[in-house]
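Hi all, posting the design record for the shared folder.

TITLE: backbone redesign
STEP: 1 of 1
STRUCTURE INPUT:
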């Protein structure tokens, strides 16, 4: 079910707004250049959710040859806890799937119970652990994986199948 916060593909011009959201959401934020780089890649998948045309959340992934990595998902603090992160993740996974992505990986901080709960609810399973992967603070990453059914030609914009 959609909310009144539209979701649209992110363009190169959205990189600065995405990096600004990133700085509000993470202790060790990705730099602007990282967003620009992914949004310029052939396999880059970026979405922004907006409130009155202002980005309040983003999804960023890359997909190549059927395998995708969710690079990040973030909702600004004032808009959390009302289903927007889940809605944006669903939209992002659907976009990955439409491109032909069926296997999705991501890393999440071992202490990030909220994000882990969100991903588990979407069918992600923990596949491994990367010791000392994060900085500020130093922390392990859990590696999560989701397998989605391929899009059939008559599927249209269907939800990801888990
Ligand atoms: C993770 C994040 C994107 C979730 O966005 P959100 O809009 O608050 O999440 P939603 O309201 O859609 O909730 C989705 C799920 O997250 C989990 N969740 C959300 N708020 C939670 C809370 N306070 N405590 C525990 N779980 C919570 C639940 O599993 C929830 O599903 P449910 O409502 O069916 O129980 C957001 O908290 C965020 O931007 N965090 C900082 C950045 C981050 O950690 N990103 C992920 C990096 S891998």
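Okay, here is what came back for every position:
SEQUENCE:
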């Amino acid at each position: 079910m959609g909310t009144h916060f539209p979701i649209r593909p992110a363009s190169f011009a959205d990189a600065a707004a995405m990096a600004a959201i990133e700085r509000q959401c993470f202790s060790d934020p990705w730099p602007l250049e990282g967003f620009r780089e992914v949004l310029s890649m052939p396999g880059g998948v970026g979405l922004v959710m907006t409130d009155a045309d202002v980005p309040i959340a983003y999804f960023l992934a890359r997909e190549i040859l059927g395998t995708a990595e969710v690079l990040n998902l973030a909702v600004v603090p004032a808009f959390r806890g009302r289903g927007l992160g889940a809605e944006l993740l669903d939209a992002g996974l659907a976009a990955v799937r439409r491109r032909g992505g069926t296997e999705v990986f991501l890393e999440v901080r071992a202490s990030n119970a909220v994000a882990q709960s969100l991903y588990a609810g979407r069918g992600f399973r923990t596949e491994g652990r990367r010791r000392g992967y994060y900085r500020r603070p130093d922390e392990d990453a859990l590696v999560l994986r989701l397998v989605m059914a391929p899009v059939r030609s008559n599927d249209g914009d269907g939800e990801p199948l888990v």
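COMMENT: The CA atoms of residues 17 and 54 lie 8 Å apart.
Let me know if anyone wants the other runs.
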